[in-house]
Amino acid sequence: MFTSEEPTRFAYGCLGSRLLSGQLKPEAAANLKDEGGATLEEVRMAAGCTGTLSEVALNKGAYSAFVELHIEQGPLLEQAGIPIGAVTAISAPAALRVRYQGPGGHAGGVYMPDRHDPLLAASQLALEVEDAAKELGGRETVGTVGVLDVHPRAVNSIPRDVLMEIDVRDMDGPRRDRVLNRIRESAARVGQERGVATSIEEINADPPTACDERIVAAIEQAAADSRLTCQRMISRAYHDTTFMSLIAPVGMIFIPCKGGVSHRPEEYASPEAIRAGIEVLARTLATLAE
Questions:
Q1: CATH value of 64-90+208-288 in 1.20.1250.20, 3.40.630.10, 1.10.260.40, 2.60.120.200
Q2: Predicted TM-score of the model (pTM)
Q3: Using CB atoms within 10 A as the burial measure, which of 10, 157, 250, 280 is most buried?
């Protein structure tokens, strides 16, 4: 049992499966801090958790297979009218944290030529993230600025501290890394041009994940036995399966979601879609257990 697939207050996504698979070491995890400076270990203790993080990791081969059922988080299955997706590979995720800092000041007290505004630096970099993904990447390359934290957040103050977090992912690991390197170079150059202090930190850079062919075939057969059409596809979002692949053969089953929407209040999968996914999951597990 593990939790925290989504990025947590400690920045990492898939925190539970990273620990369970040994991808994230206990000592590194224990010292992760939230925005208030509290460590993961302090928060665990305050919540009444017992045991140590060193007890969490499993050895390779602890499971004969790991299969995850999930909504597609995209529109392809719904558009094609196909109820089941058999995932063959999972995109390689990476994230950077960039901080720009300037002197700040009163909005009415500093002339425009005299300003060193970290928010303008961050805004410029956000556009360059888009350019890097488009110019160096392919169809499956995406770059996103998902966090932009501005201080002091007052309408009459020039920002003095801006934190941004950047997500880049691709099915092609080396191509993704070229985009990351371009963004690092851009972040440093923009900071220098705008006269603001710059720090760049890599949060994570994980490899792409290949699903086990035996499990993919079992999913396809399970769908056929359930009289459901199945399509092979890739996952452009990453999941706990990414890290469980370090200790077991893995596979994923996708079901359609309305409009391909996820991570929004409108996220929805119909009871019929969920029922179909559960049936295929059950048949797949039964086959793999033989």
A1: 3.40.630.10
A2: 0.80
A3: 280
